[in-house]
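Notes to self after the call with IL:
- keep both proteins in one doc
- input above output, always
- annotate only the second one for now

Protein 1:
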Amino acid sequence: MTQRLGTTYGGWVLPKEVLLNENSIVYSGGVGEDISFDIKLSAKYNCHIFLIDPTQKAWVHYNEALAYFSDKSKKFTGNIQTDYYAQIEKERPNFHKFRYHKVGLWNEKTDLKFFRQTNDNYVSQSLIENMFGDRFDMVPVDTLRNIMTLNGHTHIDLLKVDIEGAEINVINKMLDDGIYPKYLLVEFDLFLKKKDVNQTTQRLMQRLQKEKYVVLKNENWNITFVKN
């Protein structure tokens, strides 16, 4: 049995009897302008949630969410999903247990070009060249291990990565570092956007299988894995 939390665009599938509680640690890479999944996860399980995204529009959206849940008359700006308010308005997330890291996820600590889309209305940016346009910002990036060390964490219970092509480098580094979240939620953007010329997605899928990750749900390469 499964459950789906969040909007049609930004939601994810989890097991109905997911092993999460008020002590669980969730890392959510790729915030954008839709944190409906994180809001519902917080409201339902009261987890510790760590949002990771260097995008300025994502940072603005997070702060608008804080304002919205303090005063429902305040509205979101940006490119908001049509079902966003319906999904979140009745929830009671615990923002005291949220923390925002304004960095990008990568396989090392450095500064990288963060490429914008050609349409400025779209929030997503990518660390991968040729995913979007030629314009870019310079942003700090870091590994999951370093962010975990910063937060004093030795494990992650749930990791979500929707990071526009950087998922291959990030997850391979995660496995190299011996980090094995119980639940792993990945949008394989490099494959979806037909930019994976070296079949790195297929090789990562094989590696995850060897590490005993089982596919719970595949929604057009938005895949929920559970580790056995």
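Protein 2 (the one to annotate):
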Amino acid sequence: MNDFNNVDEKYQLLVEASAQPRKEYLISLLELLKEDEEWIRLNAVLAIASLGDEKSIVPLLDALKKEESEYVRAAIIKALGKLGNKKLIPIILPYLKDEDSRVVANTIESLEMIGDKKIAGRLLPLLKNKEVRVRVNAAKALWKFGHREVLDMLIEMLSSEHTWVRNSVIYVMGQINTPQTRKILCEQLKKENEQLKIKIIETLGVIGDESAISYLRECVSDRSIRVAESAQLALSNISLRRGEYFPCQNCSYMNPKNANFCGSCGNKIN
């Protein structure tokens, strides 16, 4: 009973913090980084990240030095990346060699968000990392930094016998979001199990590219009711957003609104 009471009490700290004005809210969250319970510190970091306030940089760095939980360390590193400050790169880079794959994967994402092409050379060796999450995150970041060859590795990984491997690749291809990766996802629909079919369908629905319509229509008659329903929802989403295209500022190629990279020149769009 005491344990439950303690959880309720600690949860109340988060609730009370969220009710404060922004400045006081941040101060309260930074104080929660000193709490003994891992889940309190983790939730505090996630809340701090959502604020995007550079005043949190120094306290987060101090907390990172002392943090023993790999979950919280990974969250702190990602929170720092969201701030986009290139001065943080030398501090974050060493975590590419962390013993925990979760920390390494989040370090890659953080460096990708900061967006400095100069660190691409540090990411290339990670394409051979034994951990799938590390490999696909490295591929996604390297694609952003102009390394188009990583797509071949991702395509090869789609042939893995392991669902969790293909699941990771599907997510990354959705993030890369070019005409080529959208076509690959559409074709993958014919090969996947129910779980990953739904994931691909939902991804295509969010992207909203009309080129996926014929593939999604086939899924409407899938023998799995869940797949059929997901396909119908995705088609409705695409129908509502039909015509949402805009020109690339670099080459004027018309891209779907949600594209991340230009389908012609490969330049990052957003």
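Annotation: The beta strands are 245-247, 254-256. Residues 26 and 229 are 42 Å apart (CA to CA).
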